[in-house]
Amino acid sequence: MAEEITYADFERVDIRVGTIIEASPFPEARKPAYKLVIDFGPEIGIKKSSAQITVHYTPEGLIGRQVLGVVNFPPRQIGPVRSEVLTLGFEDENGAIVLTAVEQPVPNGRKMM
Fold it and tell me: What are phi and psi of 43, to 5 degrees?
């Protein structure tokens, strides 16, 4: 378990819901990954991300899917892609990433409470 934090610490992490509007292979990545374009609504806008989610997902199957992302990390250069958000997921029993998602559709950009 990680070090205990306060609620104020948690509030500093801005986790929002967005809809994947584009997904494509990212052959330049060191590990298999996809380039994602995610719509986080009018306040946050359209953001790019790189995600190592190739085991359980195809680019076609990702389009229209709502995901959670940390939108207040500084951008990170991953090869030729500037990743602007951290798309969230969990490792399965084999270490492959399973995306974190909402159970019911919610408006893009809503903040995790």
Answer: -70, -45
